[in-house]
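Protocol step 4 of 5: obtain the predicted structure for the target chain.
Materials: sequence only (see below). No template structures provided, no constraints applied. The aim of this step is simply to have a reference model before the mutagenesis design in step 5. Sequence pasted as it appears in the construct record:
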Amino acid sequence: MNFYDQLASSREDSVELRSCIEKTITELDHQETSVNKPGILLGKIQSGKTRAFLGVIALAFDKGYDIAVILTKGTKSLTKQTIKRVREDFKTFIKSAEVEVFDIMSLPDNLTPYELNQKLILVVKKEDDNLRRLLKAFDTQYPVLKNKRLLIIDDEADTASLSFRRHQGQVDVGIISQQIDQVRDLVRDCDFLQVTATPYSLYLQPDEEVIRNGNSFFKPKRPAFTVILPIHSGYIGGDYYFEKCTDPSSPAYYFFEPVPLAERDSLKKEDKRRLNIDNILDEKNAAVLVRAVMNFIVGGTIRRMQQAGVNQPLEKYSFLFHTESKRESHNWQQQVASRINQCLIDAVKKDDPIFERLLQQTYDDLKSSIDIAGTNMPDYSNIQQEVKKALVAGYLMIAKVNSDNEIEALLDEDGQLRLRTPMNMFIGGQILDRGITIMNLIGFYYGRNPKKFQQDTVLQHSRMYGSRPVEDLPVTRFYSPPHIYQIMRSIHEFDSALREAFLSGAHEKGIYFIQRDRADRLVPCSPNKLLFSKLTTIRPGRRVLPVDFQTISKTAGKGILNDLDTRINILSKGMGDGVQIETHEAVKLLELCYQLLEFDDPEDSQAKAQIAVLEHFSQQADSTDARGKVWLITATDRTIKRYRDEGRFSDSPDTKQQTDNALRLATNIPALILLRENGKESDGWRDLPFWWPVVVTPTNAITSVFAAEDPKE
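Step 4 output (C-alpha cells):
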C-alpha cells in the first residue's frame, strides 16, 4: 500500500515538504535512533510541524513500520486536536480498514488479530496515566505489539519528555521521561523522532546513556540527526516582527509599541493607588492598553471594510492579552479590559470628545503602516461610523482562558480558539502557548517578566507566528515593555542563528554556548545551564550595541569623559577610519564608555555582551599578528536625538558608511566603533557628551551564542 503518495496527493504537499519527509525517513533508516539517540524534525513556531510528522508516519508505514505512537503535550485540548487531525489526514485509510487510530485512554480491551494486523496510530498525552496505559498495552494487554516495528513521534519534545527532580541531594529522572524510556526498551524494533520548534534543551542533553548502579538510568535525548522543516511561502515569523521593524519602508516599522513598567505592574492585581478604573480612559497607567484596545477595534474594522470593498467574506479578529500566569491577575485584567470597552461604548453614546481624540490617534497610527503597505485606507468618516457601530453592537468579546476546561469550551471543531464575535480578546497565561492556534491575531499585549527568561517558553508564547494574510500585517501591533521586546528579539536572533547553522552545515564545526565567568571570563556552559536571563547571539557581521539609556549628570561625567577622550585620541592616532589596538585596551574603553551611561533596567546594558564578543573573537583570528587585536573606528561631533520621531529610543548611531567600513575591516577580528555624541539637552540627553559603543562581529566568524551572565545554580 502506498500510504504517503495518496496522503501527499490529497493534501497537495509541496516538493520541499515531500523532500523533508523523505529525508527524515531515510535518516531514521540509517540511524539507530532508539538505541543511541532520537532524530529531530526542527520547525518554526506554527509552521506546519503536525502536517510534516503525519507525512512521516504515512511514509514510515510504507517502509514497514507497523505502529506509530504520537506523544502530545499534556493538555486535553491539544490531545483532542491531534486526534481529530490524524483522523482527518488518514480518513481514507481508516475507511478502508488499513489504519486504526486510538486515543490510548480509549483503547479497547478486545482488539482482534484482524485489527492488530492493521497499521495502528496511538495518540498519548504526556501524562503518567496515559503512558502507564501505553506500557500496559504493549507489555500485558497485547504483547504481540512488542514484536512489531514502532515509530515514536514526540511532539513538542522539549516539554515534559525532559523532566528531572532533585531528591535527597541526588538528581532523579521525572516520571514521564522514565515512562518514555521504558517504552523504548520494551519494543524490539523502535525508532524515536522528536518534533519541536524550540530544541535548545534537547541539543544540550548528555550525548551518551546515563548508567546508575549498573543499570540504564536515562536514555539519550540528544538528537542523532536534524532535519529542517521548510518554511512555506505564507509564513510570518520573527524575520518580520524583529528584523523588518527597523526598516522605515516596511509596515513592521510600526509593529512594536512600548508599555511602561508602571502600567505593566498595575495590571498584576487590583490596587486603586496604581490604577483606578472608574475613569479608565484618562488613566496614565492604562494609556497603552486603552490605545491597544482601540487599535484592535479600529484595525479589525478597517480589515472588514477592506474585505467588504472587494466582496470577500468578513473575517473575525483576535487579540491576546498575556502578562501574568496567576488567575487573580487574569480576573483583574478582565475587569480592566471590560471597563475600557464599556467606557468606549458610553463615550460613543454620549458624544464624549475623548472618543474622537482616541479615534484620531488610532487612525493616524494605523494609516502610517497601511499607507506603507499600499493597501486601501477607508475614509476617516466611514471608519468613524463603523467603529461606533461595532462598539454599540457589542462586537468586542472578552474571554478569560486559564484552565483546560475553559479552553476546551472555547475551541471550535478544528481545535482552534473559536472567534465568536468580530473582535475577540483572550486573556490568559501558559495555557495559551504551545499547540493553540489563534486565528487572525492582530493584537498582542505581552508582559511576562520572570526573574529568568526561559528562551523556549518565551518563543512559544509568540502566537502571532504562522500562516497569516499579509493584508493583516499593517494593522497588527505588539505591546510590551522595551526590555521584554529586546529579549524576544534576542531569542529570535538565537533561533535564526541555530537554523542557519544547521542549513549551512556550520553545526558540524560547533555552535558555541558560552557563559560569562568572572574568573575565566569565557567558558563553555554545561548542559544544565540552559535558562539564561539574557541571551546574545553573535552571527557574522552583526552589530551589538546598547539602546534605551540616558547619560549620567554633566558634573559626575566630566572627569570620566576627559579620561576617555585622552585614551581614544592616543589609541586612534588620529586614524578614525580604523586602527588595530590590543583587546584589553578596547575592553577598558568600553568600560569607561558605560560609566557615562545609566539604564532604567540593568538588563538593557550590553557591556558584558560587547566585552564577550571582543575577547572571544579577537582570539579566533587566523593570523598570529591579528590575534588578540580589535579594530578601533572613531567619529566625533555626532548629534543624535535620544528618541526617534515616533517615540521609540534611537538605535542607529552609526552611519551606513561607518558600518560598511567596519564590515570591510572586521573579516577575522571584531571592530569597535566609538561615536562621540554631543549629548545636548535639546536632543533629550543631559548636556554631557558621551561615546556610544558599537561592536561589529567578524564576517568570517562561526555563529556563536553568549550568555551575558553566569546563571545562578
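Step 4 remarks: The longest strand covers residues 629-638. The CA atoms of residues 51 and 568 lie 57 Å apart.
Proceed to step 5.
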